[in-house]
Amino acid sequence: MSDSTKNTFGFQSVAEGARQGLVNSVFSRVADRYDVMNDLMSGGLHRLWKDAAINWLGPSRTAHGQRLLDVAGGTGDMSKRWLNAAAPDARAVICDISPEMLEAGRRRLAGRYGDRLEFLEGNAEALPFPDKSFTTYTIAFGIRNVTHIDRALAEAYRVLKPGGRFLCLEFSEVQTPVLNKLYDAFSFNVIPRLGQVVAGDAEAYRYLVESIRRFPNQQTFGGMMRAAGFARVQWRDLTGGVAAMHSGWRL
DSSP letter string over 169-229? Predict the structure, then answer.
């Protein structure tokens, strides 16, 4: 296998064409217990991180025509927060490659937002939307699971309107040495065991932990955003860098 056809799945080297199917399999297996596991893995911090992301976005209560694309939005955590904070005529689309995650989201949010919220199956690397369709793009804990991050960023830029905002919330590089050691010990020893007990799948959560370590650090990901065309790129660390929010604009 040549280097050009290789990709990573956690710490494994796999054929590039096989990676997306492996990732899809992970989420199909854990969809029903995904929200419970998020609470257990983060001690509930993921809720505060998502609140912080929406606060930074600052959706307007009065501006008309706001439209959110929530990629890898799964069970709807980001979309529901954004819709709750935005104007009554704001609309959101959850786009996820996993039909199982979308179904979990539909069950969770069924009837709550009516026609303000749409669920659509799609790939972050080839979004099924016209150019300049959305005012806001979010992706929370999903971009590290795409095969080609640069393609996903290019698609994010394409579907945003001029003046549109991109915000990514993702696990990142811990900036405190002592915290880093504790975090590694918890991640590699505890999370797969929790995955086995709660979701019946230790391997899926071992991949998710390994994928975090493979993801570019704050500076590198910021550079990738600039390369995709985004301006005013900034990031904010959360919980010492366990997670980070990256923001950019299509100007």
Answer: EEE-----HHHHHHHHHHHHHTHHHHIIIIIS-HHHHHHHHHHHHHS--HHHHHHHHHHTT
For Cα atoms 168, 142, 133, give the angle at the middle one, nearest 5 degrees.
Answer: 60
What is the C-alpha to C-alpha distance for residues 51 and 120, in angstroms, rounded to an integer?
A: 24
Q: What is the DSSP letter of 123?
A: B
Gap between the Cα atoms of 132 and 227, Å rounded: 19
pTM of the model: 0.89
Are 123 and 97 within 8 A, CB to CB? Answer: yes
Q: How far is CA 129 from CA 179, 229, 246, 247, 251, in A?
A: 41, 19, 23, 21, 19
Task: State which H helix or E strand residue 82 sits in.
Answer: helix 77-85
N-to-C CA span, the chain: 41
Q: How far is the C-alpha of 209 from the C-alpha of 178, rounded, in Å? A: 19
Within its chain, how far is the Cα of 114 from the centroid?
Answer: 24
27-83: per-residue pLDDT in tens? 777 777 778 778 887 889 999 999 999 999 999 999 999 999 999 998 999 999 999
Q: Which of the residues in the chain have pLDDT under 70?
A: 1-6, 8-16, 18, 22
Residue 43: per-residue pLDDT: 87
Cβ(172)–Cβ(181) below 8 Å: no
pLDDT at 18: 67
